[in-house]
């Protein structure tokens, strides 16, 4: 086993700059590293022993553990789920070859059942974005949080595995082309976990970075992190003034009106920007000043580079208005009007809002960007040992995931409630909820949703601008506690379906179901549509203030076909069982929502999806919701056009395949690798929900799903499935089980005598 040299800190300050990726001298030695930095930079090894990793599911909280002790490892054996996540052989027997689609569902369930976690849900990697791991590692580094050698080793492995095969850089997401954003941040991570600057992969990555212009060409968020590290001067960071939070709520651009993710990221960013806070200098940080820039560090005109950005990173160029505002903030507001008293007041209020977020989530926080940033803020204000800092450190582990390629950070603290809700629905659609083989699995899944239902609104809801949430479900777990319109809907459908199935207990009583409905009914927008976490609090014009550069449609909530359609199907199902509870309101809600869904249909017949790729995903949801109100191919112009759209995209092998570029361009784009099981399943589900009358094209798709199933019942990972903010892709690995099983099961129920194999 090759041991990588570590603690290879910087060349001394007198050493001239590294030029264009070349390594001028072997970086050596950490003799003068301070104690904390040494503690933080553990010994890197080639790889860890994968038989020692375990994933603990503590009531839906995921943490990974590396058992160095043999005894411990024996006492806590690896489960199938651990092995599956880690890419280790499961040695499962071959199952009888399916003769018909229902056999394929049974084989799929046989495999999928083994992956169910003790609390009743399914876990998975939730990677894709390449800026999340840097958030965690950089926050750890600047807060002097020790990084164990086994984390460092597998972080190195993951980033090396995900480096672009040709240029050695990293993109915004795993399938994206190399960008300054991805390369600057991930290169920095590798250095901070102990990789030598003269490692051949680092030399290559650095050369690429320099070719792209170096770190002065990075987008806003990367510049902010580099300023926090002290690797860049704060003058290169466009203003993030916390005093925006002091504006009266009636101001049309006040931050409480922004999309929840952007305002939660803006909070910690603004606090540290205001304080121009910087981490303690270490040798490796000093060295990064030389490695990341093309220019001579001491001579860089930082302020002049505030708006410098490589075109590849500039997905959403800043508007003239934002440039004007930034100019005003830098040249007039800050030097002339921004008194210390005002800055102090704004910082105090920003920190108070962060504290409320901590209290409401027990320091788990909304997601993997704001969480680590909040840790840095608390550390900057309270020092290393406050409860909040310690708790944050603890909870930051819940963002991590280990897989065959190494250790990565997930987009949220998991996909628990979301995947579980869909899994239950897939079994229902296959007509197998009453089959005794699946009872224990389904009961556990129901128990999970029971445990994860959010029972109270947050404390001081109005003060921290939170949406009503009582009775709802979050995407991940109730600790995170942010309900989303479609997460509530999918979970509610799953609960109703199971609790109405003979033999299943009523764990969630009517009142709790009504609570969920009360929350869902707060989600409708004036147009009839629904958004994600909250109804929009300002119009799309706010995008004029989008400073992130790398993402589109990020500033406010939008109207989403997927969210609207999920709410429609949930309300329709509820209304069938409880017609009298807020019956008239629900009927009105559905009518208005369906009318909006029709207006959102594109001229080609498909719907644009914002959270899955892309038209195939949203068209499935749209057709399902239309059918829940009785509109199908036979009687609805819209359902018919939706079906025709899907059919026009079917490939010769019977499958469907859509490339993520569709999300960026707004036009359907075929995936170059051919048909994908997940998209094939989505399209088939859409067609079957719409009662498309000709079974032949459907049968061809079903055949493809069956052909791709492995002898042990699983399906293999293909291209990435999910997206957010138009430009960033994210993985939903459980989709390859859930949706094919659902499509196959639906086919089996509709055409029970059909043999496909
Ligand atoms: C998610 C994941 C789930 C997703 C669905 C429920 C699928 C969707 O229908 C509604 C929106 C939601 C909840 C969603 C919003 C944005 C998230 C949280 C993510 C895509 C996962 C990661 C992403 C988050 C914004 C990542 C952090 C990046 C920033 C730009 C702050």
TrEMBL record:
Any one Pfam family match given in the protein's UniProt record, by short name: SQHop_cyclase_C
Any one GO BP annotation for this protein: triterpenoid biosynthetic process
Entry keyword Lipid biosynthesis: yes
Basic and acidic residues bias: start-end ranges: 32-44
Gene3D superfamilies documented for this protein: 1.50.10.20, 6.20.120.20
Ranges where the record places region Disordered: 1-44
UniProt key word Transport: no
GO cellular component: lipid droplet
Enzyme Commission number: 5.4.99.-
Domain Squalene cyclase C-terminal: 417-747
Squalene cyclase N-terminal domain mapped to chain residues: 110-357
GO terms, molecular function: lanosterol synthase activity
UniProt KW keywords: Isomerase, Lipid biosynthesis, Lipid metabolism, Repeat, Steroid biosynthesis
Broad enzyme group: isomerase
Listed InterPro entries: SQ_cyclase_C, SQ_cyclase_N, Squalene_cyclase, Terpenoid_cyclase/PrenylTrfase
Family according to the record: Belongs to the terpene cyclase/mutase family.
Name the UniProt record assigns to this protein: Terpene cyclase/mutase family member
Native source species: Parathielavia appendiculata
